[in-house]
Specification:
The complex is a heterodimer.
Chain A: E1 3-5, E2 10-14, E3 19-21, E4 24-26, E5 32-38, E6 44-50, E7 56-58, E8 64-68, E9 73-78, E10 87-95, E11 102-105, E12 109-114
Parallel strand pairs in A: 2-12
Antiparallel strand pairs in A: 1-4, 3-9, 5-6, 5-10, 7-8, 8-9, 10-11, 10-12
Chain B: E1 4-7, E2 10-13, E3 19-25, E4 31-37, E5 43-50, E6 53-57, E7 64-70, E8 73-78, E9 87-94, E10 103-104, E11 108-112
Parallel strand pairs in B: 2-11
Antiparallel strand pairs in B: 1-3, 3-8, 4-5, 4-9, 5-6, 7-8, 9-10, 9-11
The chains are: A mainly beta, B mainly beta.
């Protein structure tokens, strides 16, 4: 069974500081990995995704993530956080299964940005 | 222009009532989903349809019944609503291979009083 762990429930950073959100996954084969962002009262927006190839993937809004197979991790990073980045961030893992495609989400990390 | 649209955005109803949430996507995707987000923001899949065929049916009370009249629409009907059904319900769509990721609707906040 696939699963995702986001160890940090809540992170607070100052505007302009760097950010790293952690994500660990469990999946039996090479996974598809995703990061989504949810602003208050909104749906989820895809930030970036990893299928294969280059383990460092670039996304929208200046985010990037690095896939490390040896650590079963897919951490999200941003070099300089903006106040508008305050939101809930979800890591997700998926793969093609006989029962149909599905994404399994982590429990989310809430990001607060201090001025 | 909205890619995945859900209606209504908010739904407040009394226990015991029956209600429906509608979802439509104009992306040409062949797979649609319902996810439930609880008060702790945890997202859990409920159902998935591929080309009108039910392919994922998680452990969900049978008071919840999805219906997909065509591959662009997936509705969720809930009978005999209970307080514990209060949550945000998200519709999403994707191409059948999950590697393309989902496109989500903006959610329906259901409050049962």
């Amino acid at each position: 069974a696939q699963s995702v762990t986001q160890p940090d429930i809540h992170i607070t950073v100052s505007e302009g500081a760097s950010l790293e959100l952690r994500c660990n996954y469990s999946y039996g084969a090479t996974p598809y990995l995703f990061w989504y962002v949810q602003s208050p009262g909104q749906g989820l927006q895809l930030l970036l995704k990893y299928f294969s190839g280059d383990t460092l993937v670039q996304g929208i809004k200046g985010f990037e993530a690095e896939f490390k197979r040896s650590q079963s991790s897919f951490n999200l990073r941003k070099p300089s956080v903006h106040w508008s980045d305050a939101a809930e961030y979800f890591c997700a893992v998926g793969g093609t299964e006989t029962s149909g495609s599905r994404l399994t989400f982590g429990e989310g990390t809430q990001l607060t940005v201090n001025p | 222009d909205t890619a995945v649209s859900q209606t209504p955005k908010y739904l407040v109803t009394q226990m015991g009532n029956d209600k429906s949430i509608k979802c439509e996507q104009n992306l040409g995707h062949d797979t649609m989903y319902w996810y439930k987000q609880d008060s702790k923001k945890f997202l859990k899949i409920m159902f998935s349809y591929n080309n009108k065929e039910l392919i994922i049916n998680e452990t969900v009370p049978n008071r919840f019944s999805p219906k997909s009249p065509d591959k662009a629409h997936l509705n969720l009907h809930i009978n005999s609503l209970e307080l514990g059904d209060s949550a945000v319900y998200f519709c999403a769509s994707s191409r059948h291979r999950v590697g393309y990721g989902y496109t989500f609707g903006s959610g329906t906040r259901l409050t049962v009083v």
